[in-house]
Every structure is written in C-alpha cells, then in structure tokens.
From TrEMBL, chain A:
Domain (Rieske): residue spans on this chain: 19-115
Lineage, top ranks: Bacteria, Bacillati, Actinomycetota, Actinomycetes, Kitasatosporales
GO biological process: nitrate assimilation
Keywords for the protein's UniProt record, in alphabetical order: 2Fe-2S, Iron, Iron-sulfur, Metal-binding, Nitrate assimilation, Oxidoreductase
Name of this chain's protein: Nitrite reductase (NADH) small subunit
Pfam families: Rieske_2
InterPro entries membership: NirD, Rieske-like_NirD, Rieske_2Fe-2S, Rieske_2Fe-2S_sf
UniProtKB/TrEMBL annotation, chain B:
Family listed: Belongs to the nitrite and sulfite reductase 4Fe-4S domain family.
Biological role: Catalyzes the reduction of sulfite to sulfide, a step in the biosynthesis of sulfur-containing amino acids and cofactors.
Organism name: Actinacidiphila guanduensis
Protein name: assimilatory sulfite reductase (ferredoxin)
Domain NADH-rubredoxin oxidoreductase C-terminal residues, every copy: 340-399
C-alpha cells in the first residue's frame, strides 16, 4: 500500500489510504471483479461503459454471499448501479445504497485510476 | 312451437310413466351437426334433454374445410377433430358412429338406424349434408375414380395415388382446386378440367379467373377450361387409363377425382314425405323448421327460406344456431347469408364477397390487375359509390376491411382500395374507418361495435380476450388481423397506454428486438441500445433486464448474423447473467454448481465413474436432477476450469443448466428394453438433445421422449414432448411442470423421424422469434393460441417455415461446446478467479459443513430478510 502505484492501476480509498487493486486493463466494461481487501474483507470493483471505475462492498446484504461483483451493471437516471445476481436488488455504485430497499446498503469506496 | 319449454302435444299422449326428458335426435355429425350440439349445450338444452346423434361416418365431426391443407402438411385425421375432449360425456350425448339413419316415421316420431336401432324423438334435426355430384359420364365407375368429401375419400385417394403418376380433377371450382392441391401434395402430375371458361366460375369473374389460372399453372397444375369430360376409359386391368375431353383430345391419367359440385342429401326427408325443392334441398322456414314442426333441417341439406342451398360452412353454422335457439324456445332466424369467401388454394389467396359478378343494375367495376405478380382486384360499386362486392386474387390483404364495408359508401375513393400500397395517393385506411355495424367476424357474426364494447366495457386488452368474450376470430381466423388492429385502436382511443416495452431501455418487445437484430444484422448490444433504445437510455449503461435478453437474441442468431457463437466473447460477455458468465449455476452462498450433459439420460459406467471421481476430488455435493443428469454443487469459480478440464477430457460437454437454453431431453428406456415400448425413445431423445443443445431461447427449454403411451418420461409436461406410437411419434408442445403445471397440447400425430424433427425445428425457432422475455412455451402458447402455432409451423400459413428451418440448420451447424472452447482460450479463462488481486486465494466466505456424508453451505448468521 505504500509503494507508488504504476500508471493505469485502479485504487480504492480505504480507511488506511489508497489501496491498489489491479491494472485497469484487468477490468471488462460493464462487469465487475472481486478484490480481496485487508483482513479478509472484499470489494466489488466495476468499470462502467463510460470508462469510470466504482467500488462497493462485495457482500450482498440480502443473502450474506460475496457475489455483488458478479452482478450486471445498469443505469437509472444516469447513475450506475449493480443488480445482485442472487435476488436482483440494485445497489447504487456511488453510494452503496440499495435502490429497492431503503434499509439496506453496502459500503462504498471512492475509486480512481492512477494517471 | 316445438320448444323445450312448450312440450309438444306428443308428450301429452297417454303414457304409463311420468313424461321423461324430451329426446332430440340429430341425424348427421358433420361440422354443422357438431355446431348444433354446441349451441344446444350453450343454451343449457343438452343437459336437460336426451340427445342422440346418428352419424354415418366412422369418426366424429371433423374439419372438412381443411382436409387438404391438413393432409398436405403431414398431419393425420385426428388432427382435424372438432369435438372438444369430453364434450359428449359432459352433456350425456349419445353418439352412434357408423350407424346412419335409414328411415323416419313422422307419425310415430321414430328414427331407424342401419343397425336396427329405433329412437323415438320429440325433435328431429336433419344435418345430413350433401354428397358429391358425379356427372353421368361413361366409365365413371372404373377403378381409380374417386370423389373428394370425407377423410375416408382422401385416405382412399392417398392409398391409390401411391401407384399412380398422373391425377385429374373434374371440376375447377373451390373444391376442385382443393382436390388438385391434395393430388399435388401426393406427388402426382395434376390436371384440372373445368367445363366453364374459367376456374372458380361461381366466385370469381373472368379477370380473376385468368390471374388464378396463371398462378395455378405456375405451380405445375395443368388447367383445361371450357372443356367437358366425355368418357373415362379404363385399361385392360379395369383401372382408369385416360379421359376423353369434349374438344376431341385425350388426357392420359391414372386417377380421376370428381369434384363437380355437391347435391343436398335429402333422401331421408323425401322418403318420409317432407317437401323438398325442385333441385333438391329440404324446404325449411326462417327458423330452419321443415313442414313438420317437430323436424328441423340445417346446413347443406336444407333449402333455406331465401330459396338457396348453402354449401359453405358459415351459413350452416348460422342455421345450427337458429335451430338450437328455436328448440330452446328463443327467437332466431336464418334468412340468407353472405357468400363471401377467402381462402388459400394451392398457395394462392382468393377472396370474393358481396355482388362479385356485378349483377346489380348500373353497377361499375373498379379494376387493378398485375398479371406478372398474379394479382387481380376488382370492386363492384353502385353509381352512388356504395361498395357492392368484389374479387381479390393473389393478394387478399384488404379483404378484412373491404368485406365489412360492403353495402356502405367507403370513406375513400374505390380506386385507392384496389391500388397496391404505395401507388397513387397514400391513404390511411384501416378498420378504424369501419362503421360499428360492420361484421368483422362472419363465422360468428360479430360486429365491430361488439368488439369495441368488449374492449371499452369489458376490459379486454388483447384479441384473444376479445375472442373469449365475443367468439370473434375463433372461427376460420380470416379476421384475426383486422381484429388485432381494432383492439389496438380501441385501446389507444380509450387512453389505455400499454407500454409493451421490454424495460426502461427499450420500447420494443423482445420479439421486436429479435426482428430488428435479424433484419439489420446487428451484432452488438451497444449498437442496438444507442440506435434503437429509448432516447433517454441511449449512451447509458443499459440494465439487467435487457442485457441478458439481447445476449440471448444475439446467441440465438449468432450463426445467421455472422457473430461468434461463444457467449463469453467480446461484447457479449458483459451482457450475460452471472450463470452464463461463469458457465455454471450460482447457488445461495456464491458457490457454483456444474451439470455435464448426459443426452437422453444415457451414460456409460466409465463416464459415471469420472463424474464420481471429479466430485470426490473437488469435494462436491452430488445430486441426481429431475432431468436425468447429475448436478455437482459447491464449486468455487477458480475451480470451474479445472473441473471442466477433467470432464471435457472424459468426453462430457456443457449441459447448459446455467442458460436460458435447451436443458435436457429426458427419456424412458424405450423399445430396446421395455416390453411395452413401441419405438426407441432413448435414441430419439439423444438425437434431439444433440440437435438442440446450446440453443439459446427466451426461457429454458425442457423435453422428453416416451417410448409408448404409458408416458414414463412425462413428455406432456415438457416444452416439447414426444410420445411414440405404433406408426411413429406424436408431438406435444407447451407443457410445463413447476408452479403452474400445464399439460402439453398435441401438435401433430404419427410423424416420421424426419417430420418430427422438422416440426420441432420450426416450433422452437418460431417460439424463439416471437416469445417475450422469460416467457415459457406454455405461456407463449396460451397467449398466441395453439391454432395459430399449428397454422404457422404445420401449415406454414406465414410462409416462414423455410426460414425457420434454415435458422435451425445454422444453429446445428454452428454448435460448439462452450466449455471446451473456454478451456482453449486464455482470455476467456481469465475471469475464473475469486479475486482479481489474489487469483489463487479461495473466497473465505464460501464455507461448507458436513451433512449426510456430503457438504452443504454454511450460511452467514446475519442477513436482511
């Protein structure tokens, strides 16, 4: 986490600072990957079709399964979301809020591509 | 009045017992007879009265109108059956098949059948139909001469045609051309001999006859008009050899079919002293009653109150309704009918309506003729502009609107009604312009006003619902298109906006997107969304509804539109649902299950051992599925390629359990082992499963093949199910298990292997083409109707069967195993990791605990419920 990241790396902002996940080339537009975080936590990292990266928690709060990275991306009112592959609830990629249940949310991590 | 509510004097004659339920005897069980029984049932009479039916033919009522089209499509007699299952039993109707009435004693009110059965009646209904007229030419009894009216006639022709090369039809009318179609369908060189100067002299005029002749001849049928048949000469073996014509020529032929008109079967009525017409036909009044108030006559045997004998089924139906109404004590009358017809003969569309020949004084013809295209249209118009009738040949698109306009002044000039679309001034002219009184469905006499009311007042939103409400469109079906347009217009007028769009991104339905992709050869989701999506969705991310839907359409059409068939290739991978994306089924804890294909449920011991070893080595939970294969649960994504490397090496392929695609074709053990089996169901199941494996569709597809009627494979609960018969295979479609079980419908009977495969090819591709997203075949079939599906895939009513077959041929030729291809491609394999930054680390949240000697997921303690 301390070494300077190579250009083109995708980073997530964690409480301890920017965490380097992978090269942006490892991502496929419109899909996600799972990122193993310190202490066995995990994030779901997405590249949208406009080329922006987004990261939220990978654990689906409705099932407890680490599957959000496997969901399909969509956009509603211009905001990208992911639909859980298990029971299809949608989560806003910028805030982690569930669009189908106000009581549910997942962590949201600011994400960037190192220039 | 001899009604049920007004017992006849006969019932009051001295009787030792209390008066029993009145007895209605129906003589003749053809189309009109059956309709009469249904009308009795509708009016509640069938339950209260004893109803006895005497039928000459060995089978219950069937659809005589479609004899040719059904037979040429390879269907069998039972497919023509008209009697709903259980109908006779439900109403306690006594049906005596093969036992015609031979005498009526009107004084004693009894009917005697050939078997000696004597039935006393309170009401007698004669629906004896007509018989084919055979002109008195010498040699007409030679072996090889036939008539064309019943299934038995057609079966006899079929049997004889096997040893014949040339067939000749005497008579170029409607039925004659039907018969010619049947002969052509049997592979004979076919001639039609017509005494009149043109074909279909009753329905079409000279110009229409010419257009018809050109098209019929182009189909390889030789037409001889303006000549009569003088003699039929037989060879030394007594079989037909040639026909001498009135112009001195001789026509060599192996088989002759007389189709020179029909005559009413009124002999029973004559014999019991009922008045008949000069040229035949039992005289009836407007209520269809004969001179004896206890006796009715309906259909082709009756001489209607307007002095005509009607040989079409629609007027027969009206008479059946009128008679049933009268018997029930209601008022109804039949005073004459519209003789409009629209039909497809030898593939040529012909329609005539109203005063087709311009018999009215001072009337004018408006004509359009395009001999090259075989199109002829004529409208007959009164001097004041009233449309009187017309003839359409080759293109009858406008029939649905023109016929109901007959008798009115159309809202546009007549020339616009005959010109082809695009010629002359463009005219927006559809069923909306029709008056409320215009009859849209002539089979059931439903006017436009009733259809509008069904939408506006009864809440119908589809043509099918309107059909259930009003019966419109449930007869011959020729009004289906106009009906659909009317329903749409009415919905729009009522302000009922039905957004049929697939999702927030596309205003089109799945079926419309399919057509767009196919027609424009669109190969990417992005292109489809940005060019054909809703304006607000263009350039956006799309959504989880349309992405897999479009992915499925692209996969279904991949070989045809020139796209890689692999679902994980560029542009397609990002669209796939999780299951398709990992070629495995995600389970509740995020692990995946693996299902290798086991075609027909048949597996060798060696392969069984491999599955066992793989499951043991990867610690997977194993379970036998309902589709006769084995599901291996509990794999993590990074294990999937290694599991499949072992399976592919042992000869397994993807089972597509993860896809909206063909799942399994289940089978019973069939004739190879089972003492009841009549066909090799396992072989057929394997053949079908291998043919359709990998076929992406709007929803999953399940199938089964049973080797005999015991149906151990449960084929009737499948999307397409096959049951062996002694003569071949019966094909059932639209079955479903699950939450809303549905028994499959019989689509076709006694098919050969090749016929079976061809029909399934068409059926599946038609489903893929027209079904909505996640619409199983059962729901789809209910929505569009079994009759329509049968028309399209069996009778090719839309002319698309060749295309459907080609699409399936493309699929079969383009099939590759997705898992083998994935293992061969490092780019596709890259996604099979739990973590992008720790490819070799298993997902720590995927955990298992033991249960009954295997594993089960260990679920987290806290989740939102």
């Amino acid at each position: 986490m301390t070494a300077p990241a190579a250009p083109g790396s995708v980073q997530l902002l964690l409480p301890g600072g920017w965490f380097t996940a992978c090269p942006v080339g490892a991502l496929e537009p419109g899909r996600g990957v799972a990122v193993l975080l310190p202490e066995d936590a995990q994030a779901a990292l997405f590249l949208d079709s406009a080329g922006a990266v987004h990261a939220i928690g990978n654990i689906d709060p409705f099932t407890g399964a680490a599957v959000l990275s496997h969901g399909l991306l969509g956009s509603a009112a211009g905001r990208p979301y992911v639909a859980s592959p298990l029971l299809k609830q949608r989560f806003d990629l910028a805030t982690g809020r569930c669009l189908d249940d106000e009581a549910a949310s997942v962590p949201a991590y600011p994400a960037r591509v190192v220039g | 009045m001899d009604g049920m509510d007004n017992p006849t004097p006969g019932a009051a004659r001295p009787a030792p017992q209390p008066a029993p339920a009145p007895t209605i005897v129906l003589v003749g069980h053809g189309m009109v007879g059956q309709r009469f029984l249904e009308a009795l049932a509708d009016r509640g009479v069938a339950g209260r009265a004893r109803v006895v039916v005497l039928c000459e033919e060995p089978r219950p009522a069937y659809d005589r109108v479609h004899l040719t089209s059904y037979f040429s499509a390879g269907a069998r007699p039972d497919d023509l059956a008209l009697v709903p299952e259980g109908f006779m039993a439900r109403y306690g109707i006594e049906l005596h098949l093969g036992d015609p009435a031979v005498a009526v004693d009107r004084a004693a009110r009894t009917v005697t059948a050939r078997s000696g059965l004597v039935v006393r009646y309170d009401t007698l209904v004669l629906a004896t139909g007509s018989y084919p007229f055979v002109p008195p030419v010498p040699g007409r009894d030679a072996e090889g001469c036939f008539v064309y009216r019943t299934i038995e006639d057609l079966l006899a022709i079929e049997a004889y045609a096997a040893g014949a090369r040339t067939g000749t039809v005497v008579g170029g009318g409607l039925l004659g051309l039907e018969a010619a179609g049947a002969l052509k369908g049997l592979g004979l060189r076919t001639h039609v001999v017509e005494f009149a100067p043109r074909l279909m002299p009753v329905q079409v005029d000279e110009g229409g006859g010419k257009a018809l002749r050109r098209t019929v001849e182009a189909l390889g049928v030789q037409v001889h008009t303006g000549v009569g048949t003088q003699e039929i000469t037989a060879g030394p073996d007594g079989k037909v050899a040639a026909m001498a014509l009135s112009d001195g020529s001789e026509l060599p032929t192996d088989l002759v079919v007389f189709s020179a008109g029909v005559r009413p079967r009124d002999e029973l009525a004559r014999a019991c002293g009922l008045p008949v017409g000069e040229r035949g036909g039992i005289v009836v009044d407007a209520a269809c009653r004969t001179a004896d108030p206890a006796v009715y006559a309906i259909g082709e045997c009756a001489l209607a109150a307007d002095g005509r004998v009607y040989g079409l089924v629609a007027p027969g139906y009206e008479m059946a309704e009128a008679a049933a109404a009268g018997i029930a004590g209601a008022e109804a009358s039949f005073t004459g009918a519209d003789l409009s017809t629209k039909l497809k003969l030898l593939g040529v569309d012909v329609a005539s309506f109203g005063d087709a020949h311009g018999a009215a004084e001072g009337c004018l013809d408006v004509l359009y003729s395009d001999p090259r295209a075989g199109i002829y249209r004529k409208l007959v118009v009164a001097p004041d502009g009233t449309l009187l009738g017309g003839v359409l040949v080759g293109d009858v698109e406008s029939y649905g609107v023109l016929r109901p306009l007959t008798g009115t002044v159309p809202p546009v000039a007549p020339e616009h009604l005959v010109l082809p679309a695009g010629a002359g001034a463009p005219v927006a002219f559809g069923p909306a312009a029709l008056p409320d009184a215009a009859v849209i469905c002539s089979c059931h006499n439903v006017a436009k006003g009733a259809i509008r009311a069904a939408v506006a007042e009864q809440g119908c939103t589809t043509a099918a619902e309107v059909g259930r409400c009003t019966r419109a469109g449930t007869g011959c079906g020729s009004c289906a298109k106009v009906l659909g347009q009317l329903v749409d217009t009415e919905l729009a007028a009522a302000g009922i906006a039905v957004d049929k769009g697939l999702c927030r991104c596309f205003a089109q339905t799945r079926a419309e997107l399919y057509e767009t992709v196919l027609a424009l050869r669109i190969t990417s989701y992005r292109e489809l969304l940005d060019r054909h999506g809703r304006p607000e969705a263009r350039g956006g991310e799309g959504c989880e509804v349309c992405k897999p839907t479009v992915a499925s359409i692209l996969a279904s059409l991949a070989p045809t539109i020139g796209l890689s068939g692999h679902v994980l290739d560029a542009g397609q991978a990002a669209l796939q649902d999780t299951n398709d994306h990992f070629l495995a089924n995600m389970q509740k804890n995020g692990s995946y299950s693996v299902v290798p294909r086991i075609p027909g449920g048949e597996i060798t011991p060696e392969k069984l051992i491999v599955i066992g070893e793989v499951a043991r080595d990867f610690g997977l939970y194993t379970k036998i599925t309902g589709g006769q294969r084995i599901d291996l649960f509990g794999a993590r994504v990074e294990q999937l390629p290694r599991i499949w490397a072992r399976l592919v090496a042992a000869g397994f392929e993807s089972g597509h359990a993860y896809g909206k695609a063909l799942r399994t074709v289940k089978s019973c053990v069939g004739s190879a082992w089972c003492r009841y089996g009549v066909q090799d169901s396992v072989r057929m199941a394997i053949d079908l499963e291998l043919r359709y494996r990998g076929l992406r569709s709007p929803h999953k597809l399940k199938s089964a093949v049973s080797g005999c009627a015991r149906e151990c494979a449960e084929a009737q609960s499948k999307d397409f199910g096959v049951i062996a018969t002694a003569a071949g295979w019966n094909l059932y479609v639209g079955g479903n298990g699950g939450a809303t079980p549905r028994h499959a419908d019989l689509l076709a009977k006694d098919l050969s292997d090749a016929e079976l495969v061809r029909l399934i090819d068409r059926f599946l591709m038609f489903y893929i083409r027209t079904a909505e997203r996640l619409e199983r075949t059962s729901v789809w079939l209910e929505r569009i109707g079994l009759d329509h599906v049968r028309d399209v895939v069996v009778h090719d009513s839309l002319g698309i069967c060749a295309e459907l077959e080609q699409l399936m041929a493309d699929h079969v030729a383009g099939y590759r195993d997705e898992w083998a291809d994935t293992l061969d491609d490092p780019e596709r394999l890259r996604r099979f990791v739990s973590f992008v930054n720790a490819p070799d680390t298993p997902d720590p949240t995927v955990r298992f605990v033991p249960e009954r000697g295997q594993i089960k997921p260990l679920l987290p303690l806290t989740v939102i419920s």
